[in-house]
Amino acid sequence: MTLLKAARLKRFARPALIAAALAAAVSSAAHADQTLDKINSRHEIAVGVLIGGSPFGSLDPQTQQPRGINVDLANDIGKRLGVKVQLVSVQPSTRVQFLQQGKVDILIANMEYNPQRGEILEHVPTPYYRVGGTAITPKSSGVTKWEDLRGKPVCISQGSSYIRPVVEKYGAIPRAFPGASQSLLALRGGSCVAAVHDAAPLLYPLQQHDPEWRDYRTLQPELEPAPSVIWVRQGEKDTAAKLDAIVRDWHESGWLIDEEAKNGLTPASPALAEWHRQLPAEQ
């Protein structure tokens, strides 16, 4: 079963509850959830984005303005909703808090779906990307496979979904930092033997394009591949449904494939090609 189909199955789980909710909605006046109300009333959407120096989010060195896939997705959502976009920079350690406290309306922040997150937040059913983690380590470290991390210190972002598997599966000792930039700086300073972060959005491009990282290797296979989704507050199903239609159109039109190429993200994601073929057939 593909991740997209799994997401769709989850979306239609518990049919009795969903049917009851729909019946209640029909019996009362049509009314968007609180997030949509707020977006429409102020004509602006606040989007939490991760600006971590990757093709998904970075600062333009000339203009110091945010750029990348996360930023492009946020701006296109604003365009389709007919509202202005306020970009709010978030960190892995703060992004859930920012959403729950209402500092942002939605998150497009390289935050993959997992059951723990699904218990506290609502997510857009259709993923916009698929991401797994990898470890980057000096070629001189002797670390060539995940099992080599047992008992060794590993730099990682606070709140990362990779903390649990590197500890429980591979016995590494996590040293958590507010974000990837601090984690990678600590790795270069010798505070840990490896750093574990998203593969395609961050570590692959870093290794491929930055000469300072050519003496480092990344580990395979990718750790815990999971769908990247847009997150909203718990119970905000109207907002999730509105955004789902947008994400589906991104896939059907091939816009996300173009975005990936435009932002220099390599290797190309097989998931994007899969969803581009699959979605029209599921209408």
Automatic annotation (TrEMBL):
UniProt signal peptide: 1-32
Q: Which InterPro entries match?
A: Bact_solute-bind_prot3 (IPR051455), Solute-binding_3/MltF_N (IPR001638)
Q: Tell me yes or no: is Transport among this UniProt entry's keywords.
A: yes
GO cellular component, alphabetical, reads: extracellular region; outer membrane-bounded periplasmic space
| SUPFAM superfamilies recorded | Periplasmic binding protein-like II (SSF53850)
What residue stretches are annotated with the Solute-binding protein family 3/N-terminal domain? 44-264
**Protein family membership:** Belongs to the bacterial solute-binding protein 3 family.
- UniProt protein name: Transporter substrate-binding domain-containing protein
